[in-house]
Write a structure and sequence with these properties.
single chain, about 260 residues, six-stranded antiparallel β-sheet, about 35% helix, binds zinc ion
Length: about 260
């Protein structure tokens, strides 16, 4: 897939006002969502335990399958991971050194084919848009990883970053459940599918924040078309701690009288 590596980078945590790891759940997940998250937590933890038992972790395992060592900007796997039955895709990569967060090894980008995302309102064409997107994919979220295979942060990006077809947050959120890397059954595929369900409240908040950031940028820079403005790359970002998040989830489940995941 196309990915415009135009030398842009993810700003440092402070540049984008990254929040500290959340120890509480974002928003008010429904009972159904909490149960989905608990099930996903089990998948994520189990997958990491299986990998750890053989001295590996999710990124190392993915890179080992790809072979060839780790090269900045290259996609892992080379042709992106694509679900055989669904319309889900992802790849892992790293930007050049200065473009990485402190402690970042690289990050995943998760996508759905554009046919899997329904548009609730007609697309408004902006006269400043010189490159109306006909891209095949919709970007859902990025997952920043540390060198030990632990997630550090989740983020969204401006349209030009992944050359995606742009949809409002609500439309992307409505399609999130379609993301499933169910075939082939690899540790990385299981882990990624679990992560997008486990951190669903954070991803929803990030997508709404993305739309707010884009709208604010457009207001402040009326001379440019915001979705192609190279000065705006990361549109929202939040630090995450797997342990803290699962702990908060377990506490919430116990409070509601549901058994913890
Ligand atoms: Zn990237």
């Amino acid at each position: 897939m196309a990915f415009e590596d135009v030398g842009a980078s993810i700003p440092s945590c402070n540049d984008v006002g990254i929040a500290q790891p959340r120890t509480a759940l974002v928003g008010m997940p429904s009972m159904e969502q909490l149960q989905m998250m608990a099930s996903a937590a089990g998948v994520v933890v189990q997958t990491m335990a299986e990998l750890a038992a053989r001295g590996s972790q999710v990124v190392a395992d993915l890179l080992a399958i790809s072979g060839d060592g780790f090269v900045e900007w290259a996609h892992y796997p080379a042709d992106d991971a694509r679900d055989a039955m669904q319309s889900s895709r992802y790849f892992y990569h790293a930007h050049a050194g200065p473009g990485r967060l402190a402690s970042e090894h690289g990050h995943f980008h998760l996508f759905l084919d554009k046919g899997a995302v329904q548009r609730s309102e007609p697309l408004e064409m902006d006269p400043l848009d010189q490159n109306p997107s006909t891209a095949d994919l919709v970007h859902l979220v990025g997952i920043v990883m540390n060198p030990f295979g632990q997630p550090l942060a989740l983020f969204t990006t401006n349209r030009w970053v992944t050359n995606e077809t742009w949809h409002p947050a609500a439309d992307v959120i409505a399609a999130l459940a379609h993301f499933a890397m169910s075939s082939p059954d690899t540790p990385a595929n299981r882990w990624i599918t679990g992560m997008i369900r486990l951190f669903r409240p954070q991803i929803e908040a990030l997508l709404y924040e993305r739309d707010r950031a884009v709208a604010a940028w457009a207001k402040d820079h009326p001379e440019t078309f915001v979705l192609e403005d190279r000065r705006l790359e990361v549109t929202s970002i939040i630090a995450v701690s797997l342990a803290d998040h699962i702990h908060a989830l377990d506490e919430q489940l116990v409070r509601l009288g549901l058994s913890a995941g």
